[in-house]
Design brief:
The longest helix has 9 residues, at about 145-150. The protein has helices at about 20-25, 60-65, 70-75, 75-80, 105-115, 145-150, 215-220, and strands spanning about 10-20, 35-40, 45, 45-50, 85-95, 100, 120-125, 130-135, 160-165, 170, 180, 185-190, 195-200, 230, 240-245, 250-265, 270-285, 285-290, 295-300, 305-320. Helix content is about 15%, strand content about 40%. It folds into 2 domains: about 10-230, Jelly Rolls (Sandwich), CATH 2.60.120.10; about 240-320, Sandwich (Jelly Rolls). Pfam families: MPI_cupin_dom, PMI_typeI_cat.
Length: about 325
Amino acid sequence: MKLYPLQFEPILKERIWGGTKLKTHLNKPIASEITGESWEISTVENDVSTIANGVFKGKSLNELINDFPEQVLGTKVFEQFGKQFPLLFKYLDAREDLSIQVHPNDELAAKRHNSFGKTEMWYVMQADDEARLIVGFKEKSSSEEYIKHLENKTLLSILDTKKVKKGDVFFLETGTVHAIGAGTVIAEIQQTSDITYRLYDFDRVDANGNTRELHVDLALEAINYDKVEAQKEYLKIENTSNEVVDCSYFTTNFIPLNGNLNVNKNQNSFTVYMCVDGDFELILNEEKYSYKKGDTVLIPASLTDFQLSGKGSLLEIYIS
C-alpha cells in the first residue's frame, strides 16, 4: 500500500480563554464560541488524530504507524522513539490571556508523569494591536522571589512581556514561565506531552464559578529562574527553507513560497507543513494535493521527492 500526504480531522478543544478565530481565520469547524485549540496532529492518549483523506481515511495515526513504522516516522525517528509519534501540532486562539504556566523537562516529566517533557515553539499568525506574550523573567529570579510575588498577586511585575506581531517566533525551552496573551492566533509545535503546571490564572472562574487548579508546588522544581532570550530572528528568503529553530526535538524552517520549490529529502524523518498564510499545492508523482491557510499535512518519511507550488507561508518541521 502506497503512502501519501496525510491530513487529519482537527481535535477541537474548548478553553475558558478561547474564541472564534479558529473558524473566522483558519476555517476550522468549531461548534463553540470558546474554542481555544485545534490539535492538528496528535497521539496524546485519548486525543489520537484520525486520518481525513485518501485510502486510510478513518484510521488513527497510531494504527498507521503500527502498520508502517519506518515508512511513516522515518528510520532515524523510529530508531529513537520506536512507534511513538514524538511531536504535537496545534493552532491556538487566545481571546483572553492564557494562564501563566511552565512545562517540566524530560527527566522531571518521566519521573512524575511517565511522559515526555514539553519543549515548544510559537509562530504568531495574527495579533491584535496591543497583543503581548509573557516569556520568562525580566531579571534572574529565585523560588523565594517567585513564591513571594505569587502570594502578593504581583507575579506579573517580575515577568517579561513582549509585544508581538504576525511572523514573530518564540522558542520555549522547558522551565520557561510563559503565557500567550489575548488577541493572538498561534501555530504551536511541541513535544508530545500534555503536562502543564499552572502558576496563576488571574483568579478567573468558569461558568459554574469554579477556579482552575493551580500547580504551585509542582512548578517550583520545574522553573528556570534565569533570564531567557526566547524570541527568534530568521531569514525570509523566497522559495527557500529558512531555518528558524533547530533543537534536539525538532527543526522548524520558514518557507515564503512564491512560485515553486523542489523538495528532495532522505528517509530519516517525516516532514510536516503548516500553512500559516496563503495556499499551496504539493505535487507528488504528477498528483496534486491542495492546501490553504490553517491546513496541516504530514508527509511520511518514505516520500522523498515532491514539489511545493503556490503563494503562501509555510512552516516546515522535521526531526534532524
